[in-house]
Amino acid sequence: DFRAMSAPLWIDSKGSKDPQHTNGGFHNFLEYVGTDGYITTEFVDDRITSYGPTYAEITMDYLTDDGKIKVSYTHIEMPQTDENRTFYVCTYEFLDDLTITDSKRNFSFYSVTGRYVDYGKLGYLDKNNIPRIVDNTLTGSAYYILGNKSPYFDCFKWMSTSEDPNTKNDYVNVGCLVYNYNVQMGGKPFNGGLGLYVEDGWAHLTLNADELNFKKGDKISLNLILVPWGSQESDYNRADADWNVRQIRENTLLDPITITVANGEKVESVYVPRVKSLDGKSAEFTLSGGENNVAFEVQGIKSIGRPVLYEKNKNGEWEVYNYTSSETPDTPVLMKR
Fold first, then answer.
1. Helices marked H in 178-335 — which ranges?
2. Among 58, 136, 172, 281, which one is most buried in terms of CB atoms within 10 A?
3. 250 CB-side CA count, 13 A
4. What is the pLDDT of residues 122-152, one digit of tens each?
């Protein structure tokens, strides 16, 4: 249920504005056509790592209908002030051999289309890592090879034929950005890259190959950001009309948040900076890069209580950092455990 900070407020059936932003798109995750026909996934289990207003993380496990791929999605959210970046860590483990022919059309990691609207424009990073905007393919199909430096695609600009007059004022654009990925096929690295297959208004993130031949034991990791953005008020006449998505690529993927640990042990993590305290009481680290708000995690604290955060000032002196919300001064706005 993807809702953008820049989206209009939801309009109900009576034309009144609901006190929440509208949501955008119909979204599908892994789907393909194999020897057993059309395959999607079935829910197996989930695990809540963290919940709350400052950092939410839930992992959802699935199994494909044919039993050949074990899938895991970790969904991460942090409070944002520009657009709602939704972070995904996706892993795929092949439990059996799998061959997919005409795979550009028949294999999709993620696909999206408009929620009761047609998107007239399609933005993407081309094979030369240059941002492009083209007319969306609402009938028929088209295929684009994506670049290899944090590629993205986005769908935008209202083009609805719906008789409901509210649809023009009740929609939001959608975007998908790839932080990084690793594909193993037949026990070897797959270097063909990613592709974007578009058919009848649906945009599908796929692998750039005509045929896929996976073997038992192969694995895929794919780290995404899904983001709703913009609205009918966006300026679609500018050459970089999808600048919201391009900025997220630049400030979140090309310049990601990093952590350098001075006291403690760095914990490997894709999006959330994590450090483990060695004495069970404290840790010292530096955060750099990235954009907008970020949650971080300190592990290994042995006592339960309100954490105290110190920040080093320009003079090299430690000062207590105020990390409470002005609306709720007794509630920390970052997570520590």
1. 243-248
2. 172
3. 8
4. 999 999 999 999 999 999 999 999 999 999 9
